[in-house]
């Protein structure tokens, strides 16, 4: 039996809530953390936090909306590949690998390529979740 995806009744509200919480965390972080070169103004921190929070909320809610897609079954197992790439890169750096010669520059380029593909695929999955939500609501008509 395949588990059902959770129903998200108000995804736009969830995005706004995430954005506000992230903005508050960023705002409090500017007051508590010593930033080199001086602290940014609270207004700039709040605006940047809201922008980042909107992005983070839209992507995470898009993933929740796309949970019942068949492609999400392989998304989580495949997500271990970029983590393994980053772990291998960190291991190489910790053991003193030469960044400019040998095998390590090739590994860095491969890690960058895998991470960019992973981020692109994650963004496309989030867009697919939002697209399906908008089509179900009748906001977007089928062409």
SSE layout:
Elements: H1 11-32, H2 42-65, H3 72-78, H4 80-94, H5 104-137
Helix pairs in contact: 1-2, 2-5, 4-5
What does this structure look like?
The chain folds into 2 domains: 7-65, no CATH class; 70-143. With 143 residues, the chain is mainly α. The two termini are 34 Å apart. The chain contains 5 helices and no strands. The mean pLDDT is 83. The longest helix has 34 residues, at 104-137.
Short description:
By secondary structure, the chain is mostly helical.
The backbone outline, from C-alpha atoms, is: flat
Q: Whole-Å distance between the termini?
A: 34 Å
Beta content comes to: under 5%
What is the number of independent domains? 2
| Helix share, percent | over 70%
Count the DSSP helices.
Answer: 5
Structural class call reads mainly alpha
Largest sheet: none
Along the chain, the helix and strand elements come as: HHHHH
Low-confidence stretches: none
**Average pLDDT level:** 83
Give me the Rg, rounded.
20 Å
| β-strand number | 0
């Amino acid at each position: 039996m395949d588990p059902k995806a959770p129903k998200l009744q108000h995804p736009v509200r969830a995005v706004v809530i995430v954005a506000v919480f992230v903005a508050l965390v960023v705002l409090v972080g500017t007051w508590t953390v010593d930033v080199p070169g001086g602290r940014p103004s609270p207004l700039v921190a709040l605006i940047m936090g809201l922008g980042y929070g909107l992005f983070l909320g839209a992507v995470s809610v898009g993933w929740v909306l796309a949970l019942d897609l068949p492609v999400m079954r392989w998304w989580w197992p495949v997500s271990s590949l970029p983590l393994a790439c980053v772990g291998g890169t960190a291991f190489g750096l910790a053991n003193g690998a030469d960044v400019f010669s040998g095998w390590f520059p090739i590994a860095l380029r491969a890690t960058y390529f895998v991470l960019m593909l992973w981020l692109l695929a994650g963004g496309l999955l989030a867009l697919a979740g939002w697209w399906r939500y908008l089509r179900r609501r009748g906001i977007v008509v089928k062409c």
